[in-house]
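Table S2 (continued). Query chain:
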Amino acid sequence: LEANSWEILQEKAKSPLDWIKFVTNDEKNKGGLVLPPPPPKVEQTTPTIPAKKSFWMEIDFPVNNHQLLLLNRSPDGQKLLCPSFAYAPNSIIEKPPIVLPQENSWAGQNGGQTNFRFDELGKEEFLAIALEKPLNLPWLTPCEEEPLIEWNGERIKELFEELEKQNNWQVFYQSFDVVESEKKPTEFLQK
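Corresponding output:
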């Protein structure tokens, strides 16, 4: 189960395009009209984000009042970003979009200095599980001792057991290629 848990969840994903976006401080603080992304082209390409830049993560999919479990798989391993002490102590999506890091998180307490930054080139994958009925697993409680919750075999087994008991949950998947480039971040987001 541990070896193929990511793929099992990825197969269940029914994701709208661009449910995750990475935005700079300037883009986050800019109010007013935000243009939607252009219509998808026939040929789908993996969105890219520039390496070594600081970004906020905007998560926008059609669920309200659900618990969000946000998993990241990267060259560094698999971590749970939401809930987490580091980025998202509150895992309830009251009304999308939500922005990470949350203000009350460790990363959110220093004015955007430790937002999301990808230093290694390669693939970054994200899986979100939106649950109508929140899970009450002890390891889903954010704590300072484990700022990013490790995604290990025992926890995967517990999560799958709890998901089997519920029928009102959805999975979303999106991947990005982290690249070195001189393009502005908005050019990456509008691919």
